[in-house]
Write a structure and sequence with these properties.
One of its GO terms (molecular function) is oxidoreductase activity. By secondary structure, the protein is an alpha+beta fold. About 30% of the residues lie in helices and about 20% in strands. The structure holds flavin-adenine dinucleotide and 2-acetamido-2-deoxy-beta-D-glucopyranose (8 copies).
């Protein structure tokens, strides 16, 4: 396949960039002509001197991207780069399921399926370490000028650009073959104000949160205020807050009373695709402000976010298990799950959030979160559940405890997850109406997801949550159906990571067309969540954004006309594909 140069005219509305000639590879695949980003096997790949100049611009913060497992291997790819280090290898092995260690690494991705499961820690140093779908260079940014330098360099050289915060994303959006990565993990500043006086109509407390701040870290800082405050964040301690989480919407334990994370954002400080520092809020750049609140991670790179804080609330929690310790009778188990899940509307109407995990024969609900509740109150709200389980003779084990604050419940009752697992993800938001009209069908579809075919098993993570309870309407990019939500469940088709490409495609097919189909049929009024969804979701524009999509597409074209930022199934990516077995990002030539 010959390399042909092509011209891409930049028609930027927001900047004064004139037409720039870019060179990239043109490939034909199945009769489609693709114009690709520049990769190291192309003549348009930057020369060493250009990388050195970039390194100088970012004060030496540019590094060759080295996969986390590399110290256990003699060689990185076929390069002359020597990476083996016995002590460092032991350290990698000891920390392979340590979320904080992985998020602190320059490029590690917590879901190795999306790195092509390459360069894993091993006791055999002769085993090859290929880059797989990891990037090529990484800027460990410590200033917004470093972010700008990376954005400008990627734009000017037509490179695949990846913004990497924690590497948590299980849709593979923070890693990419042959890319330049900008790591935002060091942006850890948080400042609080008791009385916000910026644009918007909010005069309560607020916090300015750096792009690299992680969930529990932020909650801890909120709790350390006097008096302590809360902010809407996710349940996982190490997921980032101001990166993918807010940009996709962000649900969490306080969402039923205070709305989605993005509902509470007052202002964004970002670097745009054209390399400009821009503030987006109710007054400045309101279109970008609207899109950044739930439109997906492709509108700009966040430097910091200002969001509302709220006073702390007394909170009660309950844990409940039904599993093989209590019953091996699948009919009994299934009935227990049906009873539990059919009460979803009841829980959220009482302001609750419920986190649960479901797999074959195991239901682990930890916890039911009852903000503004004491022990008596949460037991009263959960009485219909216990009454129905008792009446049906379902064995269960439950435990309830009240805390003076949400933060104390969060630390005590929420559990850490295990990283470095492989699965293909999907899921669905079920609405009040779905539960009311077809609750049994929804429960059946979720139970089905635990073993969708004879040889595939599933694992689901459920969130009973209703952002519309606390914030009935919101002027932002979040799918309107979230306002009618009652239960949002992530489904996983479990993999080992050693499957062939063909089997991987087949597992994706099971997620989309077997599990996904069952979910869509059970919840016809529902929608899907861009941060925790299926990369092959049919009709994804409608499914992830509904009526908000057309405006998002317009805003994307305005702020990133050439497609510098990319994540599959996000606004304006219709013409883009990652081709050649998960490697090159290319645009269909028109
Ligand atoms: C264990 C676990 C628990 C989770 N719990 C919740 C939850 O309770 N609620 C919820 O809503 N979601 C939850 N999620 C999903 C989570 O919101 C997404 O995985 C999110 O993308 C993670 O964002 P990150 O910045 O930490 O991750 P990364 O993987 O680093 O980045 C994710 C995406 O955001 C982009 N991005 C990162 N930083 C920036 C930035 N500064 N500017 C622009 N783009 C950026 C990346 O390019 C990428 O596309 C959970 C995920 C995991 C793995
Ligand atoms: C960038 O510069 C620093 C400091 O001089 C150096 O340690 C590092 O290796 C350089 N990065 C690359 C990719 O050459
Ligand atoms: C390394 O591998 C690539 C692709 O397989 C090849 O093009 C290149 O020539 C190799 N480099 C060396 C030094 O062997
Ligand atoms: C991804 O993994 C498969 C299976 O090991 C391998 O054949 C393929 O070459 C890998 N791709 C890259 C880019 O490393
Ligand atoms: C602020 O409140 C005023 C008066 O209620 C209203 O007109 C305006 O639209 C509000 N602005 C925002 C950004 O919500
Ligand atoms: C369920 O089966 C497992 C494995 O055989 C056994 O250990 C457990 O005791 C059984 N549970 C009950 C409630 O009988
Ligand atoms: C099963 O339930 C018992 C009783 O609550 C609990 O101790 C155990 O940890 C549970 N096991 C799993 C795998 O959840
Ligand atoms: C799945 O297993 C069942 C029971 O063993 C069998 O009857 C059925 O034919 C299998 N289905 C497929 C598609 O293999
Ligand atoms: C929410 O559900 C009600 C009916 O239950 C429906 O009338 C309304 O249109 C729904 N709203 C959204 C945004 O889907």
């Amino acid at each position: 396949m010959g390399r042909v140069s092509w011209i891409l005219s930049l028609l930027s509305v927001t900047s004064c960039v004139s037409a720039v000639a870019w060179i990239g590879e043109v490939k034909e695949v199945d009769g489609v002509t693709y114009q690709c980003k520049c990769y190291s096997d192309n003549a348009c790949w930057p020369k060493n001197a250009e990388w050195d100049a970039l390194n100088t611009t970012v004060g030496g913060a540019l590094q060759v991207a080295v996969p986390p497992g590399a110290p256990c291997h003699k060689q990185l790819g076929n390069s002359s780069i020597s990476v083996y280090n016995e002590a460092a290898c032991s350290n990698v092995q000891a920390n392979w399921v340590n979320e904080q260690w992985l998020t602190d690494h320059p490029i590690a991705n917590l879901w190795p399926l999306y790195t092509n499961n390459t360069c894993l820690p091993t006791d055999n140093p002769s085993a090859p370490c290929t880059r797989g779908f990891y990037g090529t260079y990484v800027i460990l940014a410590t200033t917004k000028a470093h972010i700008k330098a990376g954005i400008d360099f990627a734009r000017e050289h037509n490179l695949r650009l990846i913004i990497r915060n924690t590497g948590h994303d299980f849709m593979g959006r923070s890693t990419g073959y042959g890319s330049l990565i900008i790591n935002t993990h060091t942006f850890k500043d948080v400042t609080f104000t008791k009385k916000y006086d910026g644009p918007g109509n909010w005069t309560g407390g607020a916090a300015v949160v750096g792009a690299g701040v992680q969930g529990r870290e932020l909650f801890r800082k909120c709790f350390a205020q006097s008096p302590p405050v809360v902010i809407v964040g996710g349940e996982c301690p190490t997921v980032g807050w101001a990166g993918g989480y807010i940009l996709g919407g962000g649900h969490g334990p306080l969402t039923t009373i205070y709305g989605m994370g993005a509902d509470n954002v007052l202002s964004f400080d970002v670097v745009t695709a054209s390399g400009e520092y821009v503030t987006a809020n109710a007054k400045e750049n309101p279109d970008l402000f609207w899109a950044l609140k739930g439109g997906g991670p492709v509108f700009a790179t966040v430097v910091s976010i200002t969001a509302k804080t709220f006073p702390e609330v007394p909170t009660a929690g309950t844990r409940l298990n039904i599993n093989s310790t209590l019953t091996n009778d699948s009919a009994v188990f299934n009935e227990g799950f049906r009873i539990f899940h059919n009460l979803a509307n009841h829980y959220v109407e009482n302001g609750m959030f419920v986190y649960f995990e479901l797999s074959l024969g195991t239901l682990h609900i930890q916890p039911f979160v009852g903000p503004r509740m004491d022990e008596a109150k949460i037991k009263e709200v959960l009485k219909p559940l216990f009454d129905q389980l008792n009446a049906a003779n379902i064995p269960y084990d439950a435990y309830t405890r009240a805390f003076p604050t949400f933060f104390e419940l969060y630390i005590d009752m929420f559990e850490d997850e295990q990283p470095n697992q492989n699965s293909v993800v999907g899921g669905r938001i079920f609405t009040h109406q779905d539960i009311e009209e077809n609750g049994d069908g929804v429960a059946k579809a979720l139970l089905f997801a635990s073993q969708p075919t004879n040889d595939t098993f599933g694992f689901s993570v459920g969130h009973i949550v209703d952002p519309g309870h606390g914030v009935p309407v919101a002027d932002n990019a979040i799918h309107p159906t979230w306002r009618n939500a009652s239960s949002f469940v992530i489904t996983n088709v479990i993999m080992t990571g050693t499957e062939s490409w063909e089997v991987k495609m087949e597992r994706e097919n099971v997620q989309t067309n077997v599990v996904g189909k069952a979910l869509r049929e059970a919840g016809p009024n529902g929608a899907t969540y861009v941060n925790e969804g299926d990369l092959n979701e049919p009709n994804w524009q409608e499914s992830y954004w509904g009526s908000k999509y057309p405006r998002l597409l317009e805003i994307r074209k305005k702020w990133d006309p050439t497609g510098l930022f990319y994540a599959k199934t996000t606004p304006g990516t219709e013409d883009w594909d990652v081709i050649d077995y998960g490697t090159k990002l290319c645009k269909k030539a028109s």
